[in-house]
Structure formats: structure tokens, C-alpha cells
Amino acid sequence: MRSKILLRLYAQRWQIETMFKAFKSAGFNCEATHITNDLRLDTLMQILSIAFCLAYQTGEIIVLDKPIVIKKHGYRQNSIFRVGLDIISCIIFLLN
Asked: Which of 48, 63, 64, 83 is deepest in the core (most CB within 10 A)?
């Protein structure tokens, strides 16, 4: 029983790690802003959190119709977040 709880907690932690990876290097590149003002940084984090959720949910919808390719090494070609972010980016690009 305890191992199931620990596994669930680790899965939740992994979701948070995935989000921070998206913030840093896998999409939003927030470190490049060099923001030091606490209020502005807090606002940026709130906006990025909403954008992450939107991209992730979009990716989940897309993956239902077109599953992510699994490479020979066993890992997915793209994350669900990346699939969603790419779709949203294409839509924004097409609207401009």
C-alpha cells in the first residue's frame, strides 16, 4: 500500500519537473528574460503556467487522434506539451 502512495507522489512530482523543463528549455525559455523584480517574475510564472496548461491540454487532444511516435530507444519523439505547443504556434503563425 505504501509503495502505491509513493509511486503516485513521484508521478505528481514528475509532472512538476516536466512543467519546469517547459518553462526553462523545452518551449518558453523563461531564463532568457533576466527578470529580477519579484512582482514581474510572479506575473510571468502565472502566465507561463496558464500557457503550459493550454499547450498540454491541446497536446492531449491531438494525441488522442494521432499518437506520438515512439523512437527505437523507447522514448517518445515529442512530449504531449511539445505537441500542443507546436500546434498552438502553427495556429498563431497562420493567423498572422
From this structure: 83
Place of cell 519579484: 38
pLDDT tens, residue by residue, 2-23: 888 888 887 778 777 878 777 7
- Residues contacting 75, CB < 8 A, separation 6+: none
Residues 6+ positions from 79 with CB-CB distance below 8 Å: 18, 26, 59, 68
Global pTM value:
0.74
Q: 19 lies in which domain range? A: 2-95
Q: Indicate the number of domains in the chain.
A: 1
